[in-house]
Amino acid sequence: MSNEQKNRITVEIYGHHYTMIGTESKSHMRRVARLVDERMNEIKQLNPVLDLNKIAVLTAVNAVNDCVKLKEENELLKEELMKLKD
């Protein structure tokens, strides 16, 4: 079991309150919640007829897409670094 200190905060995302628990700093967790809230509101502005579930799914799809792109970019950079080391 991990001995890391867990932080607990309550955040508001898209008008709903959630309790977040994690080992990251409270400021980090607040930033994540703020970014999710912003992304959900952006999607709602672009697609006013969408319900909460669809907004949430599209937000998740966009976030995972960003994560996959960053992982791919990271791998390419690692490969380039290894070539430069050789």
From TrEMBL:
One of its GO terms (biological process) is FtsZ-dependent cytokinesis. PANTHER family: CELL DIVISION PROTEIN ZAPA. It is found in: Cytoplasm. Activator of cell division through the inhibition of FtsZ GTPase activity, therefore promoting FtsZ assembly into bundles of protofilaments necessary for the formation of the division Z ring. It is recruited early at mid-cell but it is not essential for cell division. This is Cell division protein ZapA. Homodimer. Interacts with FtsZ. It comes from Bacillus thermotolerans. Its main location: cytoplasm. InterPro entries: Bac_CellDiv_Activator, Cell_div_ZapA-like, Cell_div_ZapA-like_sf. The keyword Cytoplasm applies. Pfam families: ZapA. GO terms for cellular component: cell division site; cell septum; cytosol. Keywords: Cell cycle, Cell division, Cytoplasm, Septation. The keyword NAD does not apply. It comes from the Bacteria.
